[in-house]
């Protein structure tokens, strides 16, 4: 799985930082053993935080 994570990280370099953060977080929580609803709630919270952060930057 480490090889896959490395490949994902290499591909993500071409995307904006917010996309990189969300994608890496998704990979991490998918490997954590959390339930699907818990993963969805967690990623929703991460996405909301990224949106708020984006709003403050501009």
UniProtKB/TrEMBL annotation:
Record protein name field: Uncharacterized protein
Organism: candidate division CSSED10-310 bacterium
Taxonomic lineage from the root: Bacteria, Bacteria division CSSED10-310
């Amino acid at each position: 799985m480490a090889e896959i994570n490395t490949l994902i990280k290499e591909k993500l370099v071409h995307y904006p930082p917010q996309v990189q953060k969300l994608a890496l977080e998704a990979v991490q929580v998918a490997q954590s053993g959390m339930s699907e609803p818990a993963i969805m709630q967690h990623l929703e919270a991460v996405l909301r935080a990224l949106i708020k952060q984006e709003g403050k930057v501009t």
